[in-house]
Amino acid sequence: MAAERTVIVGHDGSTTSDLALAWAIDYAARFDAVVRVVRGWTMSTAPRPASMTGGYIPPIEEFEAAVVADLERACARVVADSAVGVDVSFEGFRGAPANGLIAASHDAELLVVGARGLGGFKGLALGSVTDQCVRHAACPVVVIRDQHSSDIERLRRLDSSLEA
Hints:
It is a single chain. By secondary structure, the chain is α/β, with parallel strands linked by helices. It has one domain: Rossmann fold, CATH 3.40.50.620. 42% of the residues lie in helices and 19% in strands. It has helices spanning 15-30, 60-82, 97-105, 128-136, 152-163, and strands at 5-10, 33-41, 88-94, 110-114, 141-144. A 5-stranded parallel sheet has the order 3-2-1-4-5, sandwiched between helices. The chain is globular, with a radius of gyration of 16 Å. The mean pLDDT is 86.
């Protein structure tokens, strides 16, 4: 039996990460792959678990569960609109987002990221996480810049014209 094809998607809640997720789901549907959505997190960026009350700090697993639940909520619309017949899973990586995506790329056929995330340097063509992924990922990387570069219908028309 052939190894399962896996597409990794970095998702930070930005508009371009939603576009990257939709593009990855379309790719996975066409090439019989699964999608793993990954979000890097630290204690300062993780949503607070419901069990966190005054004086009680929950175990790290509860923070990770809160990150994954937040990630699932953030991706719900895109998955509902796009993921017919595609297996989509969600995971958190405790640490720098680029490190998590690069580590995940070792078990993937493809890594898909948005060109820019939620970082503060708006003038950059590529965000720092995307730049690190392009330089260091163990698999090919697709960078989604904007709505035009993620236009799935346009890309399908181009693909079909090449097959003719």
